[in-house]
C-alpha cells in the first residue's frame, strides 16, 4: 500500500525508505460552512486531525518515516515542551508498535489543552524527565542518546520526517486536480519547530502549485522564524535529490511567509482573539482547536480569507476529538 503515496509516485526511488503505515490518507478538505448554511468567505480546512486513530494530527505523517523499521522492545526517545503534541503522538504510536517511549520535556506556559496533552503523554511514556528550559532539555536528551535508542528529534523535524509533509503537499495537489477544492492562494498553519511548513512549501513547489505557505508563529523566532523554515526546506530538498538523483530547484523564498502577531509572547500562552476565533469555529462546525497551536493559526487564516477573498486553506494540525467521538466515527 505504501507505493500508493503521491510521494512515491513522484519519486519511485524513495519507496525503499523504511516506513510504517500509521495514517489514513488522503485526509479530507472541506469548506467552512456556518451553521446557517453560508460559506465563511473562501476558507477551507485540511483535516489532518482525521489522519489516524487513536490520535491524528500532523505529527503522524512524519512518524510514518521516523518510526520505520521499529521493533517491539526498541526504546524510542524524543523531546519537546511539556504540552507537546509531538511527544504525545510519538509515545502513542511507539507504544502501539511495541516500543518503549521515553521523553525529555521542558516547562512552559500551559493552557487547558496543553495540560491534557501533558497528562496523556505522561501516562504513555516509560520515563519522562522535565527540565526548566529548552536548552537544558536538549542537553539532557542528547546525553541520553545511545546507539540502541531510536532518536526522534523535537517536532519530528528532520529531512526524513519532512518526507511526510512533502507527501502531504503532493496529496493536496491531487485533491485540487480532482476538483475537491480550488487551488489555494495560501496555506496557513502553526509553526513551532518548522518541519511541517518547510515540507509543505517544498512539496507544493514540486507539485507546481503557486500556493504560498503562511506560518503563524507559535514559538520563539529562533525555532520558528522564516530563515529556519527555508533552511529546513532546503535540507529536505537536498535529501530527496541525493536519494533520487533528480535535480530539484531550491525553494523560492517568496513562497514562505511567517506572521508574528499571534504569538502572544510565549509558547503555550493563549491569545484571547484566537480563543474567540476558535469558539466561532467550534460553534459553526463542531471542530475543536487548541490554544497552543491551531487556534492561533486559525485566527490568522480566518482574517486572511476575509481580507483577500481568495481560496485560503487552514491546515488543521491538532486532533481535538474526544476519545468517545473517535470510537463512534470508526
* Relative helix content: 40-55%
Largest beta-sheet details: 6 strands, mixed
User: Low-confidence segments, ≥5 residues, pLDDT <50?
Assistant: 324-330
Strand-pairing-aware structural class: alpha/beta
Annotation field: number of helices: 12
Average residue pLDDT: 94
Could you name the CATH topology of the largest domain? Rossmann fold
The CATH class of the largest domain, by name, is Alpha Beta
Strand order of the largest sheet: 1-2-10-7-8-9
* Series of H and E elements: HEEHEHEHEHEHEHEHHEHHEH
Strand content: 15-25%
Distance between the termini: 20 Å
User: What is the annotated CATH architecture of the largest domain?
Assistant: 3-Layer(aba) Sandwich
Number of domains: 2
Question: Summary?
Answer:
This protein is of the alpha/beta class and 330 residues long. Helix content is 42%, strand content 18%. The strands form two sheets. A six-stranded mixed sheet has the order 1-2-10-7-8-9, with helices on both faces. It has a four-stranded parallel sheet with strand order 5-4-3-6.
Amino acid at each position: 500500500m505504501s507505493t500508493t503515496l503521491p510521494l512515491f509516485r513522484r519519486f519511485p526511488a524513495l519507496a525503499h525508505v523504511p516506513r510504517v503505515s500509521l495514517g489514513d490518507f488522503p485526509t479530507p478538505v472541506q469548506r467552512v460552512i456556518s451553521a446557517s448554511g453560508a460559506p465563511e468567505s473562501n476558507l477551507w480546512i485540511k483535516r489532518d486531525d482525521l489522519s489516524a486513530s487513536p490520535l491524528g494530527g500532523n505529527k503522524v505523517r512524519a512518524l510514518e518515516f521516523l518510526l520505520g523499521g521499529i521493533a517491539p522492545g526498541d526504546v524510542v526517545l524524543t523531546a519537546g515542551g511539556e504540552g507537546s503534541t509531538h511527544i504525545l503522538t510519538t509515545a502513542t504510536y511507539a507504544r502501539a508498535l511495541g516500543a518503549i517511549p521515553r521523553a525529555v520535556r521542558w516547562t512552559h506556559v500551559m493552557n487547558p489543552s496543553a495540560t491534557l496533552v501533558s497528562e496523556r503523554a505522561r501516562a504513555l511514556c516509560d520515563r519522562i524527565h522535565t527540565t526548566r528550559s529548552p536548552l537544558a532539555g536538549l542537553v539532557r536528551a542528547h546525553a541520553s542518546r545511545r546507539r540502541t535508542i531510536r532518536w526522534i528529534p523535537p517536532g519530528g523535524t528532520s529531512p526524513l520526517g519532512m518526507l511526510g509533509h512533502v507527501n502531504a503537499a503532493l496529496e493536496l495537489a491531487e485533491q485540487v486536480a480532482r476538483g475537491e477544492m480550488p487551488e489555494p492562494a495560501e496555506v496557513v498553519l502553526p509553526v513551532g519547530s518548522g518541519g511541517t511548513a518547510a515540507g509543505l512549501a517544498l512539496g507544493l513547489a514540486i507539485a507546481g502549485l503557486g500556493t504560498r505557505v503562511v506560518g503563524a508563529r507559535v514559538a520563539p523566532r529562533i525555532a520558528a522564524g522564516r530563515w529556519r523554515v527555508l533552511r529546513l526546506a532546503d535540507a529536505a530538498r537536498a535529501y530527496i535529490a541525493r536519494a533520487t538523483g533528480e535535480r530539484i530547484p531550491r525553494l523560492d523564498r517568496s513562497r514562505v511567509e511567517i506572521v508574528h502577531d499571534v504569538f502572544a509572547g510565549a509558547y503555550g500562552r493563549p491569545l484571547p482573539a484566537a480563543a474567540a476565533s476558535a469558539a466561532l469555529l467550534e460553534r459553526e462546525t463542531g471542530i475543536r482547536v487548541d490554544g497552543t497551536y491551531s487556534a492561533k493559526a486559525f485566527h490568522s487564516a480566518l482574517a486572511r480569507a476575509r481580507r483577500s477573498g481568495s481560496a485560503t486553506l487552514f491546515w488543521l494540525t491538532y486532533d481535538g476529538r474526544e476519545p468517545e467521538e473517535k470510537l463512534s466515527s470508526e
